[in-house]
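Lab notebook: predicted structure, single chain.

Context: the supervisor wants predicted structures on file for every construct in the current expression panel, including those that have not yet been purified. This is the next one on the list. No modifications to the sequence; it matches the entry in the shared construct table.
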Amino acid sequence: MLLADSGFANSLAPAALRNFSRPPSLPGNAGRLVLRWLPEGNCAVGEDVEKLKQRLPLLDYLRQQSWTARPIAFGPEFVGLCPLHPETRPSFYVNARKNLFYCHGCGQGGDLIRFVQLSRHLSFRQSVAYLEQQSTVPTDSLAVLEQAAIFYQQQLERHPEALRYLQQRGLRDSALIKELRIGYAPGGSLRRHLTVHGYSFDLLQRLGLLNPQGCDAFYRRVIFPCCQGGHIVNLYGRGIAAAFAHQFLPGSKGGLFAWESVRQFPTVILVEGLFDLAVLWQAGFRHATCSLGTHLNAEQFQQLCDRPRIVYLTFDVDANGSGQQASQQLAQRLRAQGIITRRVILPDGHDPNSFFVQGGDTRQFQSLLEVASS
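Prediction complete. Output recorded below exactly as produced.
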């Protein structure tokens, strides 16, 4: 059920499960990527299933479903309350690198498709179809996301609380704010705006722009559009108050942020968050990109490895050490692909955004790049 060569599997799964090499969403003896409803030897759909799971990693999907978890030290593993059954003590473990889960409470485990089967009570085929819908953005949806982004941009200038928040986060360059297409969701008017443009209530809910009550899902959040291939594929909302958690729309977050403009550089600075990227661009470090978290999906990792380059890993220096642990693990994976890495160590408790907000400048950050360790 869990990968037998994984320390995660060996330490967490019952002995009876350790002999299985594939999650249960791939039936049979699981030595082959052949679905039981396909003719023998037809691996094309099995390969498509693997690509689907790469496009929409398990951890990303769970977070989109509002699952909260804490990282486990020294590994790509997370633990939180099980979404499959009621519990008060966290027993649901996820290995972000293996794309697997296991719950000690209910004994369920497997991959993303298995989780959808269990949580939504769907068959294997229905689960694959559901995830295909979640991970791809049809043409009409692209148009809706574009209209929503334009609307949010228009709202930013009309709401002083949003502009004050950007200033508090160190972002003051109005030209850069427009370049990044940053907007604001005040709530209360997105639905009316988009339905006037002919988009149905059902479509807006299906995309995640409206919550089950029909209200703006990004209420009181600063909005960053995530683009790929010239189209908006997702929206990221950052709450301007602690009560409003940051969130994405359902579906893949896509590749590295602004990769089309960054990939040409022989050296790249990789950061966790979009405000980290924004202040670095504002300071002149235009070769910075963002992974929207410490755990890269398959597409993001492949982008960093698409040509020889030096990658400066500039993750948060958290009190619990999770940012630096993730940085060290990613450095090892990149070096295995022939990519030169440098780990940038910020002052304790800082990320790039807070470094600049609290008085750091371009010269000081450049000094940190120059002394970055391999």
